[in-house]
Structure formats: structure tokens, C-alpha cells
Inverse folding.
């Protein structure tokens, strides 16, 4: 396979260059002139070629729930790939340890299956050690926060647990953060009522991310800036940002962008299983929790925003409309999430030897082609 005549976002230097890409055995073989190994070509004349997007915070879509104990993910993986999302970290809401491990085992089973859609690159646990005063749409369990439970969940994930959302005001916080570091798990501060001082202590202990910044966090006050004062000003923290213009308005997104820069932002969807199904009333989890989708916005029966109903692609397009360059949008949507999952050696940028997971698009991010492992998938 050869993709020719495109403007290619090259490597981690993040610069567009006119060149061809030769692909063999699912990997990028070379850049520049040369014949395709199999004679197959895609003409990208006048188009941009960027790495496929990677969603590190996704609870499911098109009727598929990633926290389920027994669920086939293929429909969701194909839908995501059609949206330009070539990699995903299935995200498990805050639950007790045993159902969490059951969900992890299902994710592992699905990751082991051949797929024509997005790669499963890791697991994100959104809890269970979160604040009971900043739950958002979740119902976290009433359980002791400690390293033993973390080790059990990490063991259940067999090395695939990459990110855990955590409220640093919880008991035994420093010990949990240190244990996570030993296990190769990135701590993402979120669903938290932490003060500035508590958040900074967690960052000192090793926390390096912030979950859907601004949402489910203590608000910013001028005399006690809270966790937002810490994560927005500390260069050691990469902030997740839901860019659907629902969770954050444009002004808030500009504040995050100007304070953190593209290098310290990760675009996420925080999508739920109703994403891609349209407006309606849905039941999730134990099928007693109601989600109402109206005008493309998902809420609980009580009116609380409950995740997004759009893919990362919609958020990336919103950033473009704000005037943020495509190469920076790609950094926030591809390389930064790859680094969060420890997968930057395989995906997240276009370089020789890396997986041929890429998107061909115009300057407005209208997709013309998507490739996963060098194989073209249907664009939605």
C-alpha cells in the first residue's frame, strides 16, 4: 500500500511535509518515492495525512458498554475507526473491585480478538477512589481507598491498566499514588473536591494527569483556587479536555489551551454507550440508571450532564474552528494520548516502523480515508 501526494504530519517534530508513505505488513515502511509493495495506491493529492486519533476516556458507543462483564466490542470498534479514532482505552466507571475486574477481563478478551476497527491500547478506570461529593453521573462505591484494592485491580488487568482517575483527598492517597507508579499506572486527578495544597501534594507524589478538566472538580475561587489552580499551572500535569462545547464552553477551552499549551492537553470524548444512537431515553449499567439524550446532549434524569454523545472527531473539529492549527489538534488527539497509554512506540505519530494507523482528511478534518494497520476502513 502506498499513500501518495499528501501533506504528511511527520514524526514527533509535528510538521507537515509533502511526501508519500509506503506501508507493508501493517507498518510504515518508508517515506518518499517508491513503488507500493502490493501495487495498491491511495491518492491524497491536496489532502492532509495525520496519525489516527486515540481516545483515552471512552465508556462505549453505539449500544456497546465497555464496563460490561460480557460484551462484544466489535460494533463500537468499527464505529470509532470510521470516526478517525484508531485507538481506544475502554473506560470503566467507578464500581466495586469484583465487577471492575470482571469488566477488565472482558476488555482483555475483546482486545485479544481480531478486529477491523480501533485498537484497544489499554484500560482507564474512572475510580473507584473518587469523591462522593463530586460524583458527576457516577455512583461510586462506599469502600476503603488503599493500595491493596489497587493491586487487585491491576492484577485483573494483566498489565493493561494504564490510567486511573483518583481523588487525592481520599484516605491513603500518597500510598495509592506511589503504588500506581510502581505498577506503571498513571494517576489522573478527577471527580475531586481537593484543595490546591492537596492537589499539589498528589502531583509531587506522582500524579500526572487531570480527568476532564473543570468537570466534577472543586470550582476555582480567587482565594482558594483548588485543584484547578494546581493542574492548570503545574507543567507536570496533562489535562484531559472534552471539546464538545457542552462540558466546556469556548472561553473555558481557550483558557485551558493558553495555560497548558497543546503539549499538555489530551482530547477525550467521555462518550457513553448511547453515543451514535441519536436522541432518546436509555438505561445503563444495572439498567436502573436512566440517561436522556436530547439535542445531542446526554443527562441523567436529574439533569446532570452524563458524558458526551459525540466522538473525539467532533471535539477536534471544534478546536479547529477556534483557530488552533491542525498539527496541534493532532498532537492533543494522537501523540499525547499515546504517551498516556505508554504506546507512543507503536502509535500516535507517523514514523518508520510505527503502525500504519492514520487519517487522510481535508483542512477542516472532513475524513477522506482511515487506515488501521494499513487496512482502509469505512468512513462514517
Amino acid at each position: 500500500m502506498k499513500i501518495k501526494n499528501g501533506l504528511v504530519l511527520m514524526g514527533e517534530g509535528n510538521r507537515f511535509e509533502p511526501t508519500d508513505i509506503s506501508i507493508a505488513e501493517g507498518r510504515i515502511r518508508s517515506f518518499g518515492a517508491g513503488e507500493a509493495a502490493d501495487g495498491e495506491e491511495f491518492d491524497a493529492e491536496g489532502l492532509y495525512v495525520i496519525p489516527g486519533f486515540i481516545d483515552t476516556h471512552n465508556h462505549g458507543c453505539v449500544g456497546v458498554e465497555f464496563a460490561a462483564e460480557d460484551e462484544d466490542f466489535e460494533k463500537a470498534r468499527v464505529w470509532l475507526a470510521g470516526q478517525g479514532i484508531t485507538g481506544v482505552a475502554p473506560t470503566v466507571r467507578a464500581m466495586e473491585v469484583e465487577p471492575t475486574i470482571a469488566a477488565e477481563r472482558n476488555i482483555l478478551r475483546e482486545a485479544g480478538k481480531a478486529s477491523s476497527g480501533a485498537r484497544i491500547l489499554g484500560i482507564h478506570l474512572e475510580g473507584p477512589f473518587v469523591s462522593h461529593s463530586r460524583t458527576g453521573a457516577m455512583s461510586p462505591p462506599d469502600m476503603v481507598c488503599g493500595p491493596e484494592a489497587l493491586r487487585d485491580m491491576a492484577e485483573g488487568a494483566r498489565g493493561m491498566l494504564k490510567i486511573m482517575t483518583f481523588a487525592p483527598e481520599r484516605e491513603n492517597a500518597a500510598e495509592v499514588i506511589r503504588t500506581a507508579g510502581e505498577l506503571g499506572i498513571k494517576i489522573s486527578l478527577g471527580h475531586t473536591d481537593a484543595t490546591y495544597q492537596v492537589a499539589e501534594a498528589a502531583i509531587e507524589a506522582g500524579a500526572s494527569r487531570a480527568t476532564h478538566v473543570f468537570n466534577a472538580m472543586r470550582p476555582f475561587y480567587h482565594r482558594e483556587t483548588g485543584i484547578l489552580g494546581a493542574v492548570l499551572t503545574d507543567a507536570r500535569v496533562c489535562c484531559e479536555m472534552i471539546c464538545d462545547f457542552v462540558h466546556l464552553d469556548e472561553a473555558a477551552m481557550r483558557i485551558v489551551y493558553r495555560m497548558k499549551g497543546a503539549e499538555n492537553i489530551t482530547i477525550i470524548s467521555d462518550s457513553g454507550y448511547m453515543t451514535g444512537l441519536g436522541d432518546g431515553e436509555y438505561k445503563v449499567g444495572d439498567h436502573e440508571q436512566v440517561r436522556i439524550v436530547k439535542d445531542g446532549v446526554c443527562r441523567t434524569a436529574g439533569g446532570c450532564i452524563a458524558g458526551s454523545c459525540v466522538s473525539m472527531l467532533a471535539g477536534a473539529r471544534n478546536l479547529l474552528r477556534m483557530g488552533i492549527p491542525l498539527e496541534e489538534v493532532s498532537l492533543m488527539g494522537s501523540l499525547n494520548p499515546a504517551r498516556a497509554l505508554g504506546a507512543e512506540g507503536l502509535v500516535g505519530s507517523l514514523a518508520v516502523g510505527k503502525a500504519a494507523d492514520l487519517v487522510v482528511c481535508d483542512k477542516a478534518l472532513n475524513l477522506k480515508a482511515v487506515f488501521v494497520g494499513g487496512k482502509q476502513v469505512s468512513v462514517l
Q: What stands out?
A: The chain has a mean pLDDT of 95.
